[in-house]
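Backbones bend. To wit:
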Amino acid sequence: MMYIAILVFLLLILILSTDISFNMKSANDVWKFDAKIGLISFRIPHQRWMEKMIKKEQMKSKKDQRQDFIEAFSKRKLVRNIAQHSSLLQLYIAKFTKEELYQNPIRNGLYLIVSNQVYAYANSTFKRLERRNIHLIYDEKYANIDYYIRIKTDIIGLLTALVQSLRKGDF
């Protein structure tokens, strides 16, 4: 009986420590989402969902759109709790010009300010920032990509974030 309890405990630890990886990529104004849970990877079909959401928002009045925008920012605590239990593996924001910093200092300076603000927000929000991938140079590896975000968490982190949000009533 004791061996079965130890086996169940080890299986529970194995299941709860399963990695979940989420990638979001924008290329030519098209969003692509994919996820990997353990060894299984899949694409998230979001096109129809996004089209329905955009059509629904276009039918609303400006007042309703403002109210929805305010509510979205006031109810983001669940996403923030999940982010606090996740690691940001990669964050890339494209620079759309190939020119050097000294050739166009105003545009490149604004890019540098915005990219450092995004990096600071990500650093304060996520549990760990794996490496800094906000570049001011044109990167050939990301030739057609506008931005790329890669987040990694595990099942125990998600469950902890959900329990914390339920206890605080953030839903």
Remarks:
- The first helix runs from residue 2 to 16.
- The first strand starts at residue 19 and ends at 27.
- The CA atoms of residues 16 and 155 lie 5 Å apart.
- Helices lie at 2-16, 47-59, 62-74, 77-84, 105-125, 155-168.
